[in-house]
Description:
The protein is an alpha/beta fold.
Amino acid sequence: MNTYLVAVIGSGSAGRAATLLAAGSGLRVAMIEKDRIGGTAFHRGCYAVAGLLGCARQFCDSRKSDRFGNEADVLQATLENWRVAQWSASTRLSENFEAELKRLNVDTYQGDAEVVEDQILQITRASGSRMTIRADNIIVATGSRPDFADTSNPRLVNSDVLLGMTSCPGRLVIIGGGHIGCEFASIYRTLGSEVTLIERENRLMPSWEPEAAERVTQTLQTRGVEIRLGCEISSDQIVADRTGAHISVPGQRSVDTDLVLFATGRRPNSARLGLQDLGIDDSSFLSVDQYMRLPRAGLYAVGDVNGISLLDSTAFTQANVAVRHIMGQSTGFDDRWATRCIHTDPCIAAVGQTEAEDKAEGVEYLTASDAIFLVSDNPRSIIDPEPTFLKVIVDAKSRCLLGCLATGDHAPTIANSAAIAMRSGIKIDHLCQFGLTQPSATDALMSTLRKL
């Protein structure tokens, strides 16, 4: 029986991070994946959707080529071509990941994993054959899947099914105005679909700051997406047949469509891992402590499967906490230090606490914001500045950064810079004295901080 210090179940964002961190630290690591290397992240999740968004943004940029003194040929966006580009990108990412695993001497196993007893994993291959390995520590990183799973009507789909389709619907209704619904609304509107986006709350992106939601809403509406708020729609309100679907909306006019996407949340891939037999509740998201530990010695859960944050951008932080704890370097998870990022249009990234959270805790703070057309380190931005919104929150007493929100193409860079400043404990008065490359996204952050 092969023996390891760490075994990771799943190769998506959290599993990939945990595997590379542990193996890069010199630990003997095994990784088990039942599907394609890279998991949901590369093939049906963050990277896959971001790949299609990249195609959409490139198409929109090409239509603006006259701003750069160029004459563009007639352009046509086709889902089939975009899917080929996205598939090629996912394949390249998987191949690069596999090469990294080989370089780090990680043993990979293809099949379904089950924890049959403490430190013992049984792997069932597609052929039905089984093998057993031993690991001192087991990290569950099996991710999540769409909550909507009804396959009885082809007119009603979830994001996994939609990503596998090669034809573009003339009319698309999206139920759910979170980041997944907004991402697909942008993609399919650029492809030419008539898109209606329905959200039960009174604004899109209800889990994000209002300023971010306002900018996503404005962009979608400018591009012709119809947005309906305060509407809760269930599958019972939809009548579908071979020709299309009809949706009854209480108090509003009904909607006829060719396809309905349910983007109403996700559920964990926590069943059939053998955890229940070990006394761990696997009926929902797995409950972990601040070190990502499950209530059984040597078991951890990171990423979507624990439900703390269903964002790929926080997967690394959780994986790092688990691996460091295994190595005896106890540093608990604190979501204040974890950057959050979603690839809507515009992209949104944030770190630290929100203004509402600071108010609730009675923190004395200062805030500054700026809505600008950013001229960045991208030479193209000289001709076509990028719409960007920044908001910073600073502790009034310590003068240290408490939080940052950014929207726009450079939002991740801005949030990452803010995260480094926060973790370093640098006062903004010292931070603003740094000489930075100009123009740049980071300097735009400093300009906003200088207002305080």
